Amino acid sequence: MTATLAALGAASPGIWARIGASVLQVAAVATGGPLLLGLMGKVRARAEGRVGPPVTQGLRDLRKLIRKEAIRAEHTSAVSGLAPLVLVASGAMGAAVTPLVTTRPAIAGGADVFVVVYLLLMGSVALALGGLDAGTAFGGMGSSRAMTIGAISEPALLVAILALAVQAHSSNLPDIVAASLAHPGWLASPQRLLALVALVVVVIAETGRIPVDNPSTHLELTMIHEAMILEYAGTDLALVTLGEAMRLGLLLGLVANLFFPWGIGGSGGPLAVLVGLVALGAKAAAIATLIALVEVSTAKVRLFRVPELLAGGFVLAVVAVTTGLVAR
Amino acid sequence: MISGSALDGVELAAGVVLAGAILALWRKDLRSLTSVLALQGIALAALAAILAATGGDVGLGVVAGVVLVTKGLVIPGLLARVVRADPGSRETAPLVNVPASLVAAAGLVILSYLVAGQLTALMPDPLTRLAPLGLATVLVGFFVLVTRRKAVSQIVGLLLVDNGVALLAFLLTAGVPLLVELGTSLDVLLVVVVLQVLATTMRARFGHVDLDQLRELHD
Asked: Alpha-carbon distance B19 to A100, whole Å?
């Protein structure tokens, strides 16, 4: 422990400091994700004139669920048990390498755009397989819907981040964030604006928020994510909920740092990392509040119009890349 | 020469204009189209104001004010009134569906970069570098004009073309003479006023504002 602290104090982050920062990032996403969900619920409730559950409700639910027995449906295979683990593990891996509190996390060289997006995709595919495993009608329907939406939103997510990669001449996420920190003028460029609009649409679809999916309903006509996890209970459900919350935290943190990289810790010591942590929390909370406020005033679109919404995001991302490629 | 945060502001405003054009193609709700137009107008006015402030050009400053009042407030306000007055036609009725027209818009943006590349090569300059954004807005505006049937959405297309031309003018010539800008702004304003009268009359006579149904003769 003392060795870790000594390394953290060094001017240039050693391997232990970077591992420490990564562990901190995973912990921040794992606790911050449920807190962000709680915050969004609270903002929605307040905007609708209700008191709403406390912000820490998500963490309390997790504590309650994790104590309960994981009951699996009859005839399920090992996939049901593995899916929540893969979801949480891929989310944790993504959180460890993404530049969230510092631009120098462990294995920063491997934090390519493609790696992080495909880690997220791995989690969604695992969850879709888990939904199919029990063989119930709802699980299959939810999985098919989630994959339909994912097939359009994942490329859009990739292309939107590529617009920033073109600008920074690197597809490595920590390098992109460090470069945008070094060039504040980039933040106002047209391709960033277009990519931001695209990314917000995609993040809303990826995290199953209101215009695409309604997380608080169990109506069979509309539910997507809830249909997939109907068969899960107890510890498994806790893992799935945690995995989904981590995905929300990771995506919001990524958007916050890619477009507004202020405050993120660079090569500084533990103090810079702590500042980065506070800044990350503030930025992610601000974005979550904005999304929740928009959610209150919008209605969920019909399932068949979701591809239309996402196609718009995808085209904006493509235009952003074009603008970036030509206008260098 | 423009540089630093002034250039950032100009880039952001130009980006908002193009993003607005694509949003206009994306959203079907006519009311949100009017707010997109208002946003574009405000961005154009901000762009003109930044150019006026950096160049110390008083005439351009007045143009910025005119743009803000006409394109940012009056025209979108009038359009919003037309939309509010006719609750039956809150959505556009595109001839080409939304995903296909968005793909077309992406093609148009790429096309405008290819075409304007020749143009900007003549005078490489941070401002002319942004000219493709204006050209793309003009092309997307034309696309809206030919693929939308409702009278209001056709006017939206016309206004997009107008905004694109204004953006091009600001970026390439660093400002339009006050008289010209006054003339075009009032022209467009007049078109919108005429449209409002026309739409009201059409609704009173036929009960709708769908231009496709005006091809047949009625008793």
From this structure: 28
Q: Which residue of A has its CA nearest to B126?
A: A327
The residues, ordered by sequence, that sit 6+ positions from B206 with a Cβ below 8 Å of its Cβ are B213, B214, B218
| Interchain contact A322–B (C-beta under 8 A) | yes
Backbone angles phi and psi of A220, in degrees to 5? -65, -25
Chain B residue numbers touching A327 (CB-CB < 8 A): 113, 129-130, 132
Report chain A (328 residues): mean pLDDT per 10 consecutive residues.
41 74 92 94 92 92 92 88 94 92 82 91 94 89 91 92 91 90 85 90 87 78 85 92 94 93 79 90 94 87 85 90 76
Domain boundaries, chain A: 2-326
> Are B15 and A191 in contact (CB < 8 Å)?
yes
In a domain, B219, yes or no: no
Residues on chain B touching A323 (C-beta within 8 angstroms):
15, 18, 109, 113, 132-133
Q: What is the 3-state secondary structure (H, E, C) of chain B?
A: CCCHHHHHHHHHHHHHHHHHHHHHHHCCEHHHHHHHHHHHHHHHHHHHHHHHHHHCCHHHHHHHHHHHHHHHHHHHHHHHHHHHHCHHHCECCECCCHHHHHHHHHHHHHHHHHHHHHHHHHCCCCCHHHHHHHHHHHHHHHHHHHHECEHHHHHHHHHHHHHHHHHHHHHHHCCCCHHHHHHHHHHHHHHHHHHHHHHHHHHHHHCCCEHHHHCCCCC
Tell me the whole-structure pTM to 2 decimals.
Answer: 0.85
Report the number of distinct structural domains present in chain B.
1
Residue A318: closest C-alpha in chain B: B106
Residue recorded with tokens 């694509």: B22
Rounded distance between C-alpha atoms, residue B80 and residue B82, angstroms: 5
Q: Give chain B positions within 8 Å (CB) of A198.
A: none
Structure ipTM: 0.78
Q: Which residues of B touch A314 (CB under 8 A)?
A: 102
Which residue range forms the structural domain that includes residue B124? 4-214
Domain annotation covers residue B144: yes
